[in-house]
Amino acid sequence: MDFIKYRKISFAFSTIYIIIGLALILVRGLNLDIDFTSGTMFEILSENFISDEDIRKITDDIDAQMHINRLGENNSTILLKTAKNLSTEELNVVKAKFEESYGIKSEMITSRTIEASMGSEIRNKAILATLISIVGILIYVSLRFKLDYGIAAIVALFHDIIFMVASYSIFNIPINSSFIAAILTVLGYSINDTIVIFDRIRENLKLYPNKTTYDIVNTSVKQSMARTINTSLTTLTAIVILYIFGVNEVRVLSLPLMIGVVIGTYSTIFIASPLWYMIRSKKEEAK
User: Which pTM does this prediction carry?
Assistant: First the structure.
């Protein structure tokens, strides 16, 4: 397969997908969990299905705009989210109503409240951690390779981050602190894949000095393809198993990891390598 030949298609796909995601952010905003805003969340484990209408009969007195989400097998886990910081009395009222109406034991109903200042601090630290990671990766790649490799790698990483955010926007998935942990994990995973291909490109440039840059990049990607796909499939298999059989906390982390691994593999092959080729070609033309 000629990976460089189809670079415009991959660039166009990523651009359109990201534009759709960013447009939806402007229209309806991101579905931020209380980790990044403030408010109260209930997690209710129910053996029986409870309709949204019945839930609102309980929650409307507290907040008519209560956000309802469902997780788990048969939607057995109900997540209720409100932007209000509920008092202990209000928390107890909601729990008591679910206990009385549906026989749900008190230990099956948990709640947590995040203050506005705490949510802001978590959000700022998450952004800082991501930026520090990107700077560290840029320094590492620039020291190990030439600057053009570093630029291509960092652009690909930014692509991964924006692509993940766009995915969460398009599918309206709640963004919480686990999303940031997944972002940092995916950055490391993606740069590792990218470095493997860049290493192969650097070796092939020395081995085949008479070959064109175009052929070198295509050859290097093909040589690394089996390793990249096998690693990704192995990782995805483990994450999918965790998502299917894990508890809710594990699922919350597994979902962005699944998305990130797919995006990271895609960007390594179809974004980072063609981008390096374009940068290299411009340098060769300028000579």
Answer: 0.77
